[in-house]
Design brief:
FAS1 domain, 7-stranded mixed sheet
C-alpha cells in the first residue's frame, strides 16, 4: 500500500513539474526553466552563445544572476552576426568593455515585463510606449497582433521572436537584432 501511494505521489509530482516547465518555450533547442535565473538558462541555449560570451566579457554574469527583476531582450547569435565582424571582435576586447556593457545594458529593463504587460503599456500610451533601459537607452515599443517590436535609438526595428520566457529573476524575450544606443 505504501509503495503504491509513493509511486502515485511521485507520478503526480512529475506531471505537475512537467506542466510547470511546459509553460516556457524552448529557446535554442533547450528547455528554459522558470526556477533558474537568466544566466543559468541562457547558457543552455545554442542560439545565445555570443550573448553569453559578451555577458561574461562585460562582467555582467553576477548582475544578471541577481535577484532582479529583469526583463532581458536577448539577441540571438544570428542577431550578433548582423554586426560587422570587426565591430563584434573589438567589443569583446577588454579595451571596449565599457562600450560592450553599455550595449548589453540597453537590452535590460529593471522590471519583470511579460508581453501582456508590454502590450498594455503600449495601449495605455496610445500605440507606442517608451521603455527606459538600465543602460540609459530609450526603446519605442509597439505591437501588431502577437508581435512585439522595439525601435532603438538608431532607428532599427527589433522583433521579439520568442516572448515570455519566464525566469526566477525576471523574463527573457528573444530578439532578432542587437539593440544599439544612439551614436556619439
Amino acid at each position: 500500500m505504501f509503495n503504491k501511494t509513493l509511486v502515485a505521489a511521485t507520478a503526480v509530482a512529475a506531471i505537475s513539474a512537467g506542466a510547470a516547465f511546459a509553460e516556457n518555450p524552448m529557446v535554442g533547442g533547450a528547455p528554459m526553466y522558470a526556477d533558474k535565473n537568466i544566466v543559468e538558462n541562457a547558457v543552455n541555449s545554442a542560439d545565445h552563445e555570443t550573448l553569453v560570451a559578451a555577458v561574461k566579457a562585460a562582467g555582467l554574469v553576477d548582475t544578471l544572476s541577481g535577484d532582479g527583476p529583469f526583463t532581458v531582450f536577448a539577441p540571438t547569435d544570428a542577431a550578433f552576426d548582423k554586426l560587422p565582424a570587426e565591430t563584434l571582435e573589438a567589443l569583446m576586447q577588454p579595451a571596449y568593455k565599457d562600450k560592450l556593457t553599455e550595449i548589453l545594458t540597453c537590452h535590460v529593463v529593471s522590471a519583470d515585463a511579460m508581453s501582456t504587460a508590454i502590450k498594455g503599456m503600449v495601449d495605455d500610451d496610445g500605440g507606442m510606449h517608451i521603455v527606459p533601459t538600465v543602460g540609459g537607452c530609450e526603446l519605442e515599443a509597439t505591437y501588431e497582433g502577437d508581435n512585439i517590436m522595439l525601435k532603438d535609438e538608431r532607428g532599427q526595428m527589433i522583433n521579439v521572436t520568442i516572448a515570455d520566457v519566464d525566469q526566477s529573476n525576471g523574463v527573457i524575450h528573444v530578439v532578432d537584432t542587437v539593440i544599439l544606443p544612439a551614436e556619439g
